[in-house]
């Protein structure tokens, strides 16, 4: 009987993980199924561009997985039973159960409303393709006139504000954040960021906490009302409650607690990669939610799955976050390097950083389309010992 590996999610972590496992494990002994809510691979790092009006290139998951033996199930994951080892999925045809022996949770994250009233009803976000397209439709309705307010001061907020300002110059773009936009950047990088805001005419409200959103704008903690025609919520991310609801050990944000091998600390037959995993980096600090973290945790998770199933030594992949690369429109960008402790060191700015960011985007998309390229052709077999069940252990 084939060992059933189910990968939940086909984003930056899940798609590559599935392809790697398909390349390294023998197809007669392993069945790999990927469950994803959409039929396309979503380049999340480009969603702010999609929202602003750029269609870009689309990648069908069926094409990405062609020839790998991977089974694709386009459906939404609605429940997880770690005791029965079953995943409940829902699509247009109804509800179904998918059994597994090994599970990789790579569902990623969504926009976090932070408990602020009105966000879900009135705000837009760029955390997923449907929501990015919803924002795009709203920007089209404005027809080049009106005010767009971006809430947040992190990478997503910065990229959304600058991309909208550049792509739709008739709109007035405002950014409101509880701290300083790009406050973690070094002095040179932050000066470059502020010059970009000035060049695009972006109005910045720093140290401004938004406590309510409605159809006409936002209300701040000091009672100020900022009027706008569209509110873009980019104040952080949250993960689905699937892991917590299933009884897996999670942190206060719902991220699955994992060991150094990306195994759940409570249910070792479940692995996690990407935003949904609370992975501790080599510096002893939790890795941030990011595309880079998805790659780092995916490499360790797949290595661990292969090692655990075949009995081979598990290599240790580095878990080191090296920096942030943020677009400031299409011709400008910042790459801020950080040291082992997360402190900003040197930065690359301007056209050179934009060229670098464009290269990262192209390379990432290519890697998703060629998940098995360059990997050893040898496929590993599984010893019979892996068929024994693994009992859940509570922390």
Automatic annotation (TrEMBL):
Coiled coil spans: none
Name of the protein described by the UniProt record: FAD-dependent oxidoreductase
Requisite cofactors: FAD
Family: Belongs to the NADH dehydrogenase family.
Pfam family, one: Pyr_redox_2
Keywords: FAD, Flavoprotein, Oxidoreductase
PANTHER family: 64 KDA MITOCHONDRIAL NADH DEHYDROGENASE (EUROFUNG), APOPTOSIS-INDUCING FACTOR 1
GO biological process: aerobic electron transport chain
FAD/NAD(P)-binding domain boundaries: 4-293
UniProt-recorded Gene Ontology molecular function terms: NAD(P)H dehydrogenase (quinone) activity
InterPro entries noted in UniProt: FAD/NAD-bd_sf, FAD/NAD-binding_dom, NADH-Q_oxidoreductase
Organism: Pseudonocardia broussonetiae
